[in-house]
Amino acid sequence: MCCSSSRNRREKERGEQMALRLPTQLSTPRHLQHRPGLSWRRALSPDAFASSHSSPLAASFRNGKSRVQQAVTCTAQAPSAVNMAPGTPVRPTSILVVGATGTLGRQIVRRALDEGYDVRCLVRPRPAPADFLRDWGATVVNADLSKPESIPATLVGIHTVIDCATGRPEEPIKTVDWEGKVALIQCAKAMGIQKYVFFSIHNCDRHPEVPLMEIKYCTEKFLKDTGLNHITIRLCGFMQGLIGQYAVPILEENSVWGTDAPTRIAYMDTQDIARLTFIALRKENLNGKLLTFAGPRAWTTQEVIALCERLAGQDANVTTVPVSILRLTRQLTRLFEWTNDVADRLAFSEVLTSDTVFSVPMTETYDLLGVDSKDIVTLEMYLQDYFSNILKKLKDLKAQSKQSDIFF
């Protein structure tokens, strides 16, 4: 324990020394925010301006004045960061997982530990510490992507960064997903990180009207321009997210919220995503590649709800929200400065109305990774396992309750 504490202290001191030598734009978020080379917005071109009048989301108002909503596009250019690492060899098994407490991040951590990696987790300072990560065997370091000066110390002795992070719902999207990611990538370049894995969103290059998707696409390009060895993995959707959204409300006989959108999503188990990620990480021929992971089948909201109803053995109390209402809500929230962040997140309503299919054929990817498609969990299998386990537990609890009912 003494040796471990001493090593951690030395790494922290080394990180602080490196922070002093990093480019000055990393010193504060304010410097990063106002650098013209790191903008992810641009003025509308004449053609875009002309076409904007036909868009229902083009016109909005701020402070009582008419304003045209600008297309979100990336103008970021990677700085010429100098590799300031002293050249001390690091173990190829040393990885830093950013966003380790999230739905995907925790599966990345567990898979990495199971495969023998030395895992360090970057976690924001929080009232409830991420003790479960330590219990699994990972090292936890506190840092915040919105505070670039806190990043360098977390990268000392790291070979590979796996970036699963995204901003919290209450935060402005650009704070973590753009400004924070730019700072993290710059630090990784400056400190000689050997490989960077970035998780993005499928079709992000096709929807510049959605801020989060455009930022993901911008970050992809920024990472590529740095020259870092990297793999970008675009994802379609997580099966785990369907539990709280549909399965639990149905079991508890609460309202299930859905839309009438025709959008189809090929959900994937995050355990499968983690497994495929480490297979890709070990293949040197995939450096610089863009991969997309998708589940075996794409599902509409209505189909997912119907599947949950069948497996739960009960009907859902479905409240359908027309996509047109979401679009109108986004227009209204654009009227006020203090609701702009809400409007940015409601921008996904534009994707829902576009009849987009979030899926890709996986045959080529399976061949690249040497994976059998039969080993990939289907949504039917995942939800069947969930409902079987939860219904069995509910049955056992009910039986125990009856046994403990003693009347005098």
SSE order and pairing:
Elements: H1 2-21, H2 29-34, H3 46-52, E1 59-62, E2 65-68, E3 94-98, H4 105-114, E4 118-123, H5 131-136, E5 139-142, H6 152-155, E6 160-163, H7 173-190, E7 195-201, H8 211-226, E8 230-235, H9 241-251, E9 255-259, E10 264-265, H10 270-281, E11 290-293, H11 301-312, E12 317-321, H12 323-333, H13 340-346, H14 348-352, E13 357-358, H15 363-369, H16 379-403
Parallel strand pairs: 3-4, 3-6, 4-5, 6-7, 7-8, 8-11, 9-12, 10-13
Antiparallel strand pairs: 1-2
Helix pairs in contact: 4-10, 7-8, 9-11, 11-16, 12-13
Helix content: 40-55%
Estimate the global geometry from the Cα principal axes: globular
Mean model confidence by pLDDT: 77
Continuous helix count: 16
CATH class of the largest domain: Alpha Beta
Estimate nothing, just give the exact number of structural domains. Answer: 2
CATH topology of the largest domain, which one? Answer: Rossmann fold
Descriptive report:
The protein is of the alpha/beta class and 408 residues long. It has 2 domains: 14-38 and 76-235, Rossmann fold (3-Layer(aba) Sandwich), CATH 3.40.50.720; 238-269 and 295-408, UDP-galactose 4-epimerase, domain 1 (Alpha-Beta Complex). The chain has 16 helices and 13 strands. The protein has helices at 2-21, 29-34, 46-52, 105-114, 131-136, 152-155, 173-190, 211-226, 241-251, 270-281, 301-312, 323-333, 340-346, 348-352, 363-369, 379-403, and strands at 59-62, 65-68, 94-98, 118-123, 139-142, 160-163, 195-201, 230-235, 255-259, 264-265, 290-293, 317-321, 357-358. It has a 7-stranded parallel sheet with strand order 5-4-3-6-7-8-11, with helices on both faces. Helix 5 (131-136) links the parallel strand 4 (118-123) and strand 5. Helix 4 (105-114) packs across helix 10, helix 9 (241-251) packs across helix 11 and helix 12 runs antiparallel to helix 13. The longest helix is centred in the C-terminal third of the chain and has 25 residues, at 379-403. 37% of the residues are buried. Mean pLDDT is 77; it is low at 23-38, 40-73, 78-85, 333-340 and 401-408.
